[in-house]
Amino acid sequence: MVTARVETVVLDAANLAARNPNGKKADWRFVFVDQVKAACERRWDGVLVRAWMDASAESRLADRDRLRSARQAGWLEIAPGDADDLILEFADDHRAAVVSRDKFKDARRTYPWLEEPHRVWNWTWEKGEVTLAPRRLRPVTDEEVAAARRKKALKAGVIGLVDGQVWICRAPVGRCTQAGRSTTPKKTLNKYYCARCSYPAEEQVYATVLPAPPTLTLVVDGANRARLDLPPGGVVLGRGGPTRPDVTDVTGFLDGGAANDIGRRHLRIDLDDEGRPVVVHQSEAGSSFLNPRFGADGLPADHRLEPGTRYALDDDDELVLGAGRVRLRVSFEGDD
Ligand SMILES: [Zn+2]
After folding, report:
1. Which residues form the FHA domain (predicted)?
2. Binning pLDDT at 50, 70 and 90, where does residue 159 land?
């Protein structure tokens, strides 16, 4: 498999710093950003790593001394507003790879390279160790881009976190020491105000997806055929049979010949430390693709999974098995 050379990488530090141990409240530590930076440096020899973090995320860190070290070393900057804009501008200027779980739907037309292979990377945590894998963002329609832009405009630069709450003082600059920054709220008649200045306070909600139990929908020839639950111990999907009780069969709706396109133990899906699904293609025969584009012949044309590599799966992702008649759609319940 050809892997494009990555010379510069930009980290979405707020996204990386919030870790959700399976089903628990997010744990905020800059050490996770340090670990991902180290993983990038191991993977790409001589790579230049830069990172941006939202100002409001800084106050949630349990280890702010590490953040200070990163700023002093010059590879981390604090974004006064939405770090995403700075991350994408930098990536565009430097042809950098982006490490983030954001889908950047509002920016897909401004930066079409977001949908190219090897420009966006995801990570998984397994027993405290981080693994990077290329992420293919599912192409979006113009309507989806427009909806994402409206949503972003409504939030007026407010990005947000999975659980716990951060409140931003909305006082004009100069009226409050916390104007535009995180503050302690007070609640009056179901509205929140900055406790220092009494201007309205606005909740900041981060875009990390809560790992609710993910489900897989088996789609064969375009029709939804079954809903597969993902047990905590993971699942092996492939060509089932009486001698393979460990395999969940995904070929039952195919005629005989087509089933041979799918390996006996085609792929495995596990949950990582945060309860996020991770796929590993493990079949010698056959192939799997994540959010591929399709050629004129109707066959999946790109983003083939390298056997043995761990790829994080996201809400709305589509895994395509073999020639494409069998697909698995990933959904995280409760995600909007
Ligand atoms: Zn205030």
Report:
1. 235-291
2. very low
For residues 275 and 193, membership in a common domain is answered with no
Mean pLDDT value of segment 43-57: 92
CA of 164 from ligand 1 middle (Å) equals 20
Cα 94 to middle of ligand 1, angstroms: 37
Is position 286 within any domain? Answer: yes
| Distance between Cα 156 and ligand 1 center (Å) | 17
Q: Which domain holds residue 26?
A: 8-142
> 202 CA distance to ligand 1 centroid (A)?
11
Q: What is the rounded distance in angstroms from the CA atom of residue 80 to the CA atom of residue 191? A: 25
Query: Percentage of the chain surpassing pLDDT 90?
Result: 50
Does the residue 20 lie in any domain? yes
Q: In angstroms, what is the span from residue 170 Cα to ligand 1's centroid?
A: 7
Q: What are phi and psi for residue 246, nearest 5 degrees?
A: -80, -10
Beta strands in 111-222 (DSSP E): 120-126, 129-135, 166-169, 182-183, 185-188, 191-194, 201-204, 214-220
Same domain? 264 vs 242: yes
Q: In terms of pLDDT, which residue wins out, 259 or 24?
A: 259
Residues with Cβ within 8 Å of 59's Cβ and at least 6 positions away in sequence, in order, are 166, 182
Same domain, 196 and 218: no
Q: Final residue of a domain: which of 89, 112, 142? A: 142
Instruction: Say how many Å lie between the CA of residue 179 and the centre of ligand 1.
Output: 5
Exposure string over 16-45, b if 16+ CB within 10 A, otherwise e: bbbbbeeeeebebbbebbbbbbebbeeebe
Stretch 140-163: mean pLDDT = 67
What tokens does 180 get?
């535009």
DSSP 306: P
Q: How far is the CA of 60 from the centre of ligand 1 (A)?
A: 18
Question: Do 187 and 280 share a domain, yes or no?
Answer: no
Cα 185 to ligand 1 centre (Å): 9
**Residue 28 C-alpha to ligand 1 middle, in angstroms?**
24
Provide the domain count of the chain: 3
